[in-house]
Amino acid sequence: MGKILPDFLIKRPEGYYCRYGDFYVDPLLPVNLALVSHAHGDHATPGHREICCTAATAAFMRYRYNKQPAHTYTTFSYHQPFTIGSVAIRFIPAGHMLGSAQILMEYGGVRYLYTGDYKMQADSTCEPLEMVEADVLITESTFADPGISHPDPAVEIMKLKEKPHPILLGAYALGKAQRLTALINEHCPSRRILLHHSILPLHRLYESMGITQLRYEPYNRKMMKVDGADHIYIVPPMTFNSYYRATNVLRVFASGWKHLQHRNDMELYISDHVDWQDILDYVVGVNPREIWTVHGNGSHLREHFADQIVVRTLGELQSM
């Protein structure tokens, strides 16, 4: 059993840095070599000299950052091994959105698993989460709080079926909007989905990568004004916030965050992250010797696993 290196991954201003391979994981500032877990803007940014990621993540980044040269991207399939410096690497499905990946890194006989954002709930619009064992679990802790439990998304989406009114549905354009479309198609099949113009091309990108079951239409202003219509108009957050005075529609925002449910006409708790119990279940499956937390508050996990597993927040030990 290899010795865990506390400085294997450290927090720098650019992002999480691995000096043993001289690369960054999900850096926010431009670097020479970036491993990108998925295409959301708080993990995937432009300006890097070289980006390693899955093909789907590269496709979304090319769309969003179209000035980034195409040769910047080196793509790998899930489980395809590659090496950077002396670090052996594989991408493992994370279940967060299409193309999202956990990053399994092995060095000196120790396996370090960086989850990126991940979820355990079923989602027909992306690859399901896969669990692998690792010595160090580097987990997001967005909702790592014993007081947070995500409800069944099928039960939540059925709330829309019970409201025969036009609905203005706020959602993140990439990942969440496509998942909501699939959930509404399946559980509220009578509801017609209209898409904001900024979301429409992302749905089409999903279709080009095999997610072909989604039923939707481009937004048409007249359709939302038809008497008796009960269309659902999916819009990005900025548009949703600008329509705070919208009349004759129900305002709903799909999120796991409680503060985003305030002042809306109903609550819709649909999250693409793990909740407290999910993380505990994941720890059992990964069976780590240590847990390092990122993207959130790891204090509850540290307290829960006291005297069982070492838990620390990545960044507590800085570069030397």
UniProtKB/TrEMBL annotation:
One of its GO terms (molecular function) is RNA endonuclease activity. Pfam families: Lactamase_B_2. It comes from Parapedobacter composti. This is Putative mRNA 3-end processing factor. Residues 29-153 form the Metallo-beta-lactamase domain.
